[in-house]
Structures are given as structure tokens and as C-alpha cells.
Amino acid sequence: MTKDDCKKLVTEIIADIAPDEDLSNLKPDVRLRDQLQLDSMDFLDIVMELRKRHGIEVPEADYIQLASLESCAEYLTPKFNALEGKR
Amino acid sequence: MSSPSHYDVAIIGAGMSGLAAGIRLAHFGRRVCILERHSKLGGLNSFYRLDGRKFDVGLHAMTNFVPEGVRGTPLGKLLRQLRIERGEFALCPQKQSRVVFGSTGKTELRFTNDFSVLEAEIAAKFPAQIDGFRRLADLVRSYGDRVFDVPQVSARQVVREYFSDPLLEDMMFCPLMYYGSARERDMDLSQFVIMFRALFLEGFARPLEGVRLVIRVLLEKYQAAGGECRMRCGVARIVEREGRAAALVLDGGAEITADHVISSIGAAETLALCDPMVGGGLAVASAPSGMGILPMSAALGQRHGQDARATIGRRLSFVESIRVLKHQPGELGWGSDTIVFFNDSDRFDYARPAQQVDLRSGVICLPNNFDFGGAELPEGWLRVTCLADYDQWIGLPEERYRADKLRWLDESTRSARRFLPEISDATLAAETIATDLFTPRTITRFTGHLEGAVYGAPGKTPDGRTHLKNLYLCGTDQGLLGIVGAMLSGISMANQHILQPEIRGA
């Protein structure tokens, strides 16, 4: 999986969690919170969807890694690839 | 622990808050069971059938309505968290509402879902107060979603710092209290902030079909997510063991167990299900600080036979008269008001009345007067809500109860008509197809709430904690009111106590 694939998966999750948000112009390097109306409850949903859909665990200490799409990709892509490797 | 009678979470009560908590938990894969004693869903916002006609209970209007595209609001948050698309609730906005004070409707403030209408009304009728009013609105806005950051102080005292005219003060409090205050005469500032936003900064709406549609959407989401709902299945007792809710004994005697229990039936009502001899002393020690201590200690006071009501005020109940009409209210000359809050006295007295029903103030709802986009309700409706005294309704012999219902149906309609354009008695009589009145007794019978309390106990438990570590409260006694508030209460308690700690532990 590439980082772009990973960003796409995260964007898909956000689209389901926040269907009222326009995601077409998301800037990858800007904090999601600064571009979208996401609160801590919504981040909880992102973490849970990652686990539910993709089997990815994000411990609370690492939530900060989900701040922007870029940092999500940085942090999650190796996790996705590690899972791929196991399958 | 995966026997058929073991669940990850058991939820007591299938009202708005219980259903919302259930959806949230089921959606994330928890095995959830909602236990409802009644044969219908919805709790305080439900419906019943009489002579083939469906009557809504509770819902006049859904508050917190904002048009599509307005972001960062309670409604938006709830739709997201429950994965409900906006269109599914099919919300239709109100036309206009009024607050009218004085025996002949002397002072009137019109408001709509556009806040500037109310601002203009206040500027015109209370020119000396408009600056203070605007600053008060800014204060409410400044809290945003952080309602639990609001200091726990008297809202009356705070409002008096912003405007000095007691008439305007009462006219502001009247709608906010009627639509969500469990406290007599005053509100906690946090409740005031929630309700001011819900009614004035946001607004009223309802689906054409009424509360039934909201309930159906919630049930469908819950079932689609794999949740189980048992109807006519009340919880008779919560078995306590080692500081935990170890099992639930159902009305039929069967037992179920659950890792977590969420109760939406009220703080004192929940405590009453717990073992009377165990846990009582613990409750005070582990009760949350601030307001939270009130309901738990009050409930314990009742358990120990003390009069706890003296310290926390009394529970408030209402009667509501419902009149079904041949024509739309507008066609009869009643105009296009959706909701009218009225009061005929010098001061607005929101308290448990000395009489069976307090006719001095009340709320008129004309549910036909939402903007249903060309559609309309097939019959006309007039609903009138007034404060009532539970004690003077509960003990009545059946015959007297029925007679009193008829009497107060007429009296409350007559009182309310003073604040609507005049229609003759003969016309109203000829127009009326059906009537009903629900009373504090009806409310206790169908919801189990103590003393017919519609908005729960006067003291709230914002963190939802109880004396048992796996038992949490949601719904009216947690402190978020109205339909949107109730659903958010269920969502936030499920998040805070069950989902968040579990991912933390992962």
C-alpha cells in the first residue's frame, strides 16, 4: 500500500463519519480539525472504523498521529503493510 | 461469558436516549439489549392509539433545528454519530411562535427559526434592554458545545446582570423552562445556555408524521446494527455485587447479565431497582461532585424515609389537553402560530402548583403550523400544556379522575384561547372530533418516572456515574433535554463510559 492509498482509505472513513463535510479540497498537510468540524467524538469514530474495517489498532497515545492526512499516512501506511505481510 | 442471556451492554428503557446509546454501541460491534417495560418505544416521547387515531405524547416540536449546511451544531453531531442522513428525519421548520404575557395578551414577542426576528421584536418592545439581550446571546454563543464548562450558578441571577426588566426576564425564561427545566422558578445556567441555544439561536421543526418517524428511524438503525430490543420486558431489580451491577432481574423473574448497564429511567428510579441493603452508603461517597450529588443523595434520602425534596425542590409534572378538529387551525382563524407560550400574571411562576392544574400559564401547540412544504396533517390539532400537581391526581378514585380530566380539558383550552384569535364556543364545539387529556398519572404509568416528572429530577448527574462502577445514567437525569439532547445524552454516555475506555485499553 502506498501513502496515497492510505490517505484515500482515511478520507473514505471521514466521508462516512461526516457526510455533511466537503472533502474535495482537503489539504493533506493541514490539521483535519482546522479544515473540518471534527471533535474528539469524531476522532473516536475514525479510530474505531480503522479497527473495524481494517484491523488497525491505534492506542490513545498515538491519536496525535492522526492530526492531518499526511501524518495519518505516515503513521498508518506501515501498519497497513505490516498487516498485509501477515496475510 | 457468551451465554444467550449475557450482553456486552444492557440498556434499561427504549426512549430516545436509550435507543441512541444502543445504536452507537451496536454500531461498534457490542452485543446490546434494550429492555423496555412498555409495549411502545419512545419513553417520554411516544404515541398511543385512541379510537383508531394516533396521538403523539411529548413532542410539540423538535428543538435545535438548523437548516442544512449549518455546521457545528448538536443536530449535526447527533446525525453523524448515529449515521443518520439528514433527510431521514424529514424535518419541517416551524412557521412562527410567540411568547405572550398579560391577561389580554398585552406584551408579545414573536420568534422564528431566524434569530434576528426575536432580536427585532425585543429592540422594538424593550428598546432599553436590547443591548443587554444581545450581550446575553453572545454569552450563550461563547460556550459553544462546552456546556459543562458553564459555572453552576443561578441563571436568573446571571440574566439580571444583562437586563433589568423583570417582564423581559420572565418572557425569556417561560419558553426555556416549559421546554426543559426540571427545576422550579430558576434554571442552572448550563441548562439555560442549552435551552436558549436550542429554542432561540436554533429553532423548532418536526416531521409531518411526528415523533413516530423519529422512533422508527432509530429502531431501524439499531436493528440494522444488530441490536436487540425486548418489549414488555421491564427490569425489576439490579443485583449488586462487589460494587458492580452483577445481574438484572426481569419482571418475569428471568435474569440477564451484562458487562455494562446504562439506565435511562432516571437516577432515583434506577437506584430504587438496586438492592436496598447494599450500596446505599457507597453512593454518597462515590457520587460525583457538584450538582451530581443531588439526585443520588436525594434518592438515598427517599430510600431512608427522609424528606429530600426540601433541599432539591419538587418534581414538575404537566397535563396536556389534545383536541382534534375537522379543519386546519388556520382555516378556523387561529393564524399560523406553531407554538405559543403564555402567562397571564404579573410574574411567571414555574413551580408545582397549589391547585390540581395551574391555568395562569401554559404552552399552546398547533402542530399543523409547521411548514410541511405543501403537505398537511389530515386533521386539525390543538394541544395545550399546563403545570399540574402530581399529588392531586394520583390518588383519585377512577370516577373522579375521569371527571377531573374532562373538567381540566375544558378549563385549559379556555385558558389558552385567551391568547389566540377569538373563535366562538359554538364553532369550537362543532369543530371538535375527539379530545383527550394526559395527566401526571398517565406519565408515571407509561414512563415509570416518579411523580409524573417530565424533565426528571431537579438535580442532574452530568457525568452519568452512579454508585456502581459499571452502571451509568443517560437521558433526562443526565442533564441533556429535548429530543436532540436526549439522543446526545445516550451517545455521549456510551462514548465516555464504554467505547472510549475500551479503545484506551486496546
Could you explain the architecture of this structure?
The complex is a heterodimer of chains A (87) and B (506). Chain A contains four helices and no strands. The mean pLDDT of chain A is 90. Chain A has helices at 3-17, 32-35, 40-54, 69-86. The longest helix of chain A has 18 residues, at 69-86. Chain A has one domain (3-19, 26-86): Orthogonal Bundle (Non-ribosomal Peptide Synthetase Peptidyl Carrier Protein, Chain A). In chain A, helix 1 packs across helix 3 (40-54). Chain B has 506 residues and is α/β, with parallel strands linked by helices. Chain B has three domains: 6-59 and 212-311 and 457-505, FAD/NAD(P)-binding domain (3-Layer(bba) Sandwich); 95-203, no CATH class; 317-447. Chain B is built from 18 helices and 18 strands. Chain B has helices at 16-27, 74-81, 115-125, 130-143, 155-162, 166-178, 189-202, 211-224, 267-271, 280-286, 293-303, 309-312, 329-332, 391-394, 398-417, 425-431, 440-447, 482-505; strands spanning 6-12, 32-35, 47-50, 53-56, 91-93, 96-101, 107-111, 205-207, 228-230, 235-241, 244-250, 255-263, 317-325, 337-343, 361-365, 380-388, 432-438, 471-473. In chain B, a hairpin with a 4-residue loop joins strand 11 (244-250) and strand 12 (255-263). In chain B, helix 1 packs parallel to helix 8 (211-224) and helix 2 crosses helix 18 (482-505). The two termini of chain B are 20 Å apart. Mean pLDDT of chain B is 90; it is low at 278-311. The chains are: A mainly alpha (87), B alpha/beta (506). Chain A binds chain B through residues 16-21, 37, 39, 41-42, 44-45, 47-48, 51-52, 57-60, and chain B through 28-29, 68-69, 71-72, 76-77, 79-81, 83, 85-86, 145, 491-492, 495, 499-500, 503-504, 506.
